[in-house]
Amino acid sequence: MEFDIKTIFRLGPIPITETVVNTWIIMVVLVVGSMIVTRRFRTAGPGDKLGTTELVVEMIVDGLDSFIGETMGKKGRKFVPYISTLLLFLVVANLVGLVGVRPPTADLNTTLGLATITFILIQGSGIRSKGILGYIKGFFEPFPLMFPLNLISEISTPFSMAFRLFGNIIGGMIIMTLLYMVAPIVVPVIPHVYFDLFSGIIQAFIFTMLTMVFVSMAIDEEEEE
Amino acid sequence: MNDLLLAKAIVLGLSALGAGIGMIAGLGPGIGQGYAAGKGAEAVGRQPEAAGRITQTMLLGQAVAETTGIYSLLIALILLFANPLIRLLS
């Protein structure tokens, strides 16, 4: 049994793994797909008929918009692009296992990378909304002795997020591989629904949801003071 | 040579055992998530109009509660597929 990540080719000293190639493919599909879908958009009057693609895209964008606005409040508007992109990428990346390729999120490097972006976003927006002094002061609350604990809890956030996503996806992948050894046909259909569809979508949702909660926690505190 | 083989066999066997024992930690998240889901069902029963928010909060809490289980899963996976102990022998 091998669950190692295969190296497709080498670019000088840098190994280009399966994960990187799959991520590139997903990126191309998402970017080109968005460009094709939005190419013929124009401002329509009330009397004009909208095409089906336009309606679907508008529905998705509207849904994401109101969902993020509901969770993060008014201040969350400027995070809509990042969080929507994160959600779209994660959903596609988790579901790509259904086609038979290795999901990019079954690699700790991908999830740690995403979690690092989120970590920088959390700290950056915290500093931005509270100012550098208020941000440092936040570590010494409720009383100065709490400083090490606060520091550890801040630093462990990206790790727990990355490991949660990675563990769920790779756990599902390993169980599916083992199942394919026992029963190669028909039987794996139902577990696929759970491990790939349900678990994949839920985990993508959880990751984005946690990002939103942490970011709004970082920017909200200043409002109360 | 034979000693090394024996040592390797012991390490591998005990690692597999350790992975199995480590996964007992899966009990905790199971109980916790079930409890959260039960409370979520109760809350929806009491306040059906807030079902969306209740489900969101429940899923979020369950995801955080799951962390310990995921850590034990990772340790089991490391013991099975990327055993660091076997490298100490040679």
Description:
The complex is a heterodimer of chains A (225) and B (90). Helices cover 72% and strands 4% of the residues of chain A. With 225 residues, chain A is mainly alpha-helical. In chain A, helix 1 crosses helix 3 and helix 4 runs parallel beside helix 6. Chain B has one domain (2-6, 23-89): F1F0 ATP synthase subunit C (F1FO ATP Synthase). In chain B, 84% of the residues lie in helices and 0% in strands. Chain B has helices spanning 2-22, 27-46, 51-65, 67-81, 85-89. In chain B, helix 2 (27-46) runs antiparallel to helix 3. The longest helix of chain B has 21 residues, at 2-22. Classes of the chains: A mainly alpha (225), B mainly alpha (90). Chains A and B meet through helix 5 and helix 6 of A and helix 3 and helix 4 of B.
Please write out the topology.
The complex is a heterodimer of chains A (225) and B (90).
Chain A lengths: L6 E5 L2 E4 H21 L13 H21 L7 H16 L12 H32 L7 H36 L6 H36 L1
Antiparallel strand pairs in A: 1-2
Chain B lengths: L1 H21 L4 H20 L4 H15 L1 H15 L3 H5 L1
Helix pairs in contact in B: 1-4, 2-3
Structural descriptors:
heterodimer, A: 225 residues, mainly alpha, two-stranded antiparallel sheet, 6 helices, 2 strands, 72% helix, 4% strand, globular, B: 90 residues, F1FO ATP Synthase, 5 helices
Nutshell version of this structure?
The complex is a heterodimer of chains A (225) and B (90). Helix content of chain A is 72%, strand content 4%. Chain A is mostly helical and 225 residues long.
The most extensive interface, with participating residues per chain, is: A-B, 19 and 13 residues
Quantity of strands of chain A, as a count: 2
Number of domains of chain A: 1
| Name given to the CATH architecture of chain B | Up-down Bundle
CATH class division of chain B: Mainly Alpha
- Compressed to H and E, one letter per element, the order of chain B equals HHHHH
What is the end-to-end distance of chain A? 56 Å
Q: Which strand-content bin applies to the residues of chain B?
A: under 5%
What radius of gyration of chain B results from the CA coordinates?
20 Å
User: Can you write the helix and strand succession of chain A as a string?
Assistant: EEHHHHHH
Task: Tell me the quaternary state.
Answer: heterodimer
Unreliable parts of chain A: none
Q: Determine the structural class of chain A based on helices, strands and strand pairing.
A: mainly alpha
Helix percentage range of chain B: over 70%
Cα-atom radius of gyration of chain A: 21 Å
Count the E strands of chain B. Answer: 0
By helix and strand content of chain B, what is the structural category? mainly alpha
Instruction: Give the CATH H-level superfamily of chain B.
Output: F1F0 ATP synthase subunit C
